[in-house]
């Protein structure tokens, strides 16, 4: 009989203990952080410096060496380059090395729908042009919008550079052909001279 | 004693009757929105969260969003169900919940139907909900539904007995089953509430108050069990039987079950307030006891108990079925009997 009342009493008293705890929590400070209005990991400085998020490419550093594209395990980096024509003036230097750039990067696309944030490209880059940022909010409504175009050159500029290079190449080829023809002619002339001299000596 | 300000203004014509029967419905609709918000907010605050914050200021429009969501959901009637019963069950649930409002006195001048058997009526229509639950569970043709319905039926039948004995004790104390009469006897201030034994000498009150507190706890626990709320939510125990008797329901029909549960919560809370805490009577005697203040007292007392129900829900885990039966039959029924005899004795000698 005593156990019976003890059971009832402990049932009620433990309920009261539980209700006290929940009532305390009812008025406690809440742990929810109101992202993104009142608390934002980037603006509040809570993003670690080496966190793996969206990649950014500094095109002033990039010389289009393709190391990142080769290092990428998912193949999300797409690079096309055009060589800098010899006749071109005012070619900007690569910022970190100070040497003039050898190539124009006409296409530098990263598909963030494919990117796995492994950071292998940033390790591979010789000039540290490709870097991880802390930016992580870049959802889009269309998958195509996740392909980021980093190349600073417009389509016209690319055409211009290509034309210039083609022209230079054509000129070079022409010059080479001329030089070859000249060489051949000289050779022929030399050969003729040789035979002539031989004939003369005979 | 016919007390109804609408009938006095308009006369007991068809339009007067229509207004009287629609007024509680308007109240229930507004109340349900507030109760949903209260449930969401209490749940999240107890868990140290903020809860809904985006819809309106501090998320106050969230219940409207929830109702709109329920309204536009697809109303699925599975192929294998017993269609007439399946479609009827949620409406029986709601009718049972709403019928109880017919005798609920919101004020000294407003009770939709001031019948003398008010307490008995509220109890009778409350029991009608079992039919809706069993009907829904059986018609769903689903093992979880029928298990939930069987659990609900056994639970509600067992817990109606202690609740009925408590009601009987109050009826013997008040000498009436008319709820206006019961409330009228608790006038004159907080010390005359039935939780303190009603009107009587101080010594008598000191003797009867512990019994009344026990009876109040018994009634409140039984009411919790009858509304199928945690810790007595074994008929819909999510972790065991998906959602119990409303597993197969969706859209508007599920909303009816939901709505019925919330209106039942108010009914039992209002009944607790009427039986033990003076209904629409002001706690300060004649101060703030004007007619227009009566609904305010009534609704605020009932809302407090609605809050306690929600509070308990987020405090206690669910009972096992055997624990539930143990509490109901071995603990509550005997204690309710003893309490009933004590109160009947007090009603005779005071």
Task: From the structure above, extract its key features.
heterodimer; A: 202 residues; alpha+beta; 3-stranded antiparallel beta sheet; two-stranded antiparallel sheet; 4 helices; 5 strands; 41% helix; B: 350 residues; mainly alpha; 12 helices; 0% strand; globular
Fraction in beta strands of chain A: 5-15%
Largest binding interface between chains: A-B, 20 and 17 residues
Characterize the overall form of chain B: globular
Question: What structural class results from the helix and strand content of chain A?
Answer: alpha+beta
The rounded distance between the terminal residues' Cα atoms of chain B is: 26 Å
Care to describe what's here?
- The complex is a heterodimer of chains A (202) and B (350).
- The relative contact order of chain A is 0.13.
- Chain A is built from 4 helices and 5 strands; from the N terminus they run αβαββαββα.
- Helices cover 41% and strands 12% of the residues of chain A.
- In chain A, strands 2-3-5 form a 3-stranded antiparallel beta sheet, covered by helices on one side.
- Chain B starts with a helix and ends with a helix.
- The model of chain B has no long low-confidence stretch (mean pLDDT 84).
- The interface between A and B is medium-sized, with 20 and 17 residues.
What is the strand and helix layout of this fold?
The complex is a heterodimer of chains A (202) and B (350).
Chain A: H1 2-26, E1 55-57, H2 67-71, E2 77-83, E3 103-111, H3 120-124, E4 130-132, E5 147-149, H4 155-201
Chain B: H1 5-10, H2 14-46, H3 62-72, H4 83-99, H5 118-139, H6 143-174, H7 179-184, H8 202-226, H9 238-241, H10 251-276, H11 294-313, H12 321-349
């Amino acid at each position: 009989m005593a156990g019976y009342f003890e059971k009832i009493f402990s049932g009620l008293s433990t309920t009261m203990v539980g209700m006290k705890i929940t009532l305390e929590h009812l008025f406690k400070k809440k742990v929810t952080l109101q992202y993104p209005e009142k608390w934002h990991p980037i603006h509040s400085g809570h993003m670690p410096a080496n966190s793996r998020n969206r990649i950014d490419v500094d095109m002033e550093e990039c010389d289009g060496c393709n190391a990142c594209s080769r290092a990428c395990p998912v193949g999300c980096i797409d690079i096309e380059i055009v060589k800098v024509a010899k006749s071109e003036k005012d070619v900007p230097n690569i910022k970190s090395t100070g040497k003039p750039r050898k190539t124009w990067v006409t296409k530098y696309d990263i598909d963030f729908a494919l990117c796995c944030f492994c950071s292998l490209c940033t390790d591979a880059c010789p000039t540290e042009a490709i870097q991880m940022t802390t930016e992580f909010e870049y959802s889009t409504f269309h998958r195509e919008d996740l392909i980021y175009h980093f190349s600073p050159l417009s389509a016209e500029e690319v055409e211009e550079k290509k034309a210039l290079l083609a022209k230079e190449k054509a000129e070079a080829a022409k010059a080479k052909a001329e030089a070859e023809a000249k060489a051949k002619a000289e050779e022929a002339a030399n050969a003729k001279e040789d035979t002539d001299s031989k004939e003369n000596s005979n | 004693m016919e007390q109804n300000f609408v009938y006095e203004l308009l006369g007991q014509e068809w339009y007067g009757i229509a207004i009287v029967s629609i007024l509680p419905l308007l109240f229930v609709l507004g109340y349900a929105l507030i109760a949903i918000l209260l449930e969401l907010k209490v749940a999240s605050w107890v868990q140290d969260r903020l809860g809904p914050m985006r819809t309106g200021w501090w998320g106050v429009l969230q219940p409207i969003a929830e109702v709109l969501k329920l309204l536009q959901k697809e109303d699925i009637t599975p192929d294998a169900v017993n269609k007439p019963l399946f479609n009827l069950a949620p409406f029986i649930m709601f009718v049972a919940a709403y019928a109880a409002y017919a005798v609920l006195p919101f004020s000294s001048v407003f009770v939709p139907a001031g019948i003398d058997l008010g307490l008995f009526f509220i109890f009778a229509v409350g029991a009608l909900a079992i039919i809706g639950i069993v009907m829904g569970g059986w018609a769903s043709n689903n093992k979880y539904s029928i298990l939930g319905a069987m659990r609900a039926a056994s639970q509600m039948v067992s817990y109606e007995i202690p609740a009925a004995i408590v009601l009987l004790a109050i009826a013997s104390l008040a000498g009436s089953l008319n709820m206006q009469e019961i409330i009228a006897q608790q006038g004159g201030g907080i010390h005359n509430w039935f939780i303190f034994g009603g009107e009587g000498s101080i010594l008598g009150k000191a003797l009867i108050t512990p019994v009344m507190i026990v009876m109040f706890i018994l009634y409140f626990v039984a009411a919790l069990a009858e509304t199928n709320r945690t810790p007595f939510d074994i008929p819909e125990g999510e972790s065991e039987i998906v959602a119990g008797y409303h597993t197969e329901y969706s859209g508007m029909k599920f909303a009816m079950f939901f709505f019925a549960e919330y209106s039942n919560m108010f009914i039992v809370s209002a009944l607790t307030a009427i039986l033990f805490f003076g209904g629409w009577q002001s706690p300060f005697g004649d101060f703030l006891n004007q007619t227009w203040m009566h609904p305010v007292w009534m609704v605020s007392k009932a809302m407090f108990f609605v809050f306690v129900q929600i509070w308990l829900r987020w405090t206690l885990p669910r009972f096992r079925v055997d624990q539930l039966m143990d509490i109901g039959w071995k603990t509550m029924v005997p204690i309710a009997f003893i309490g009933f005899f004590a109160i009947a004795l007090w009603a005779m000698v005071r």
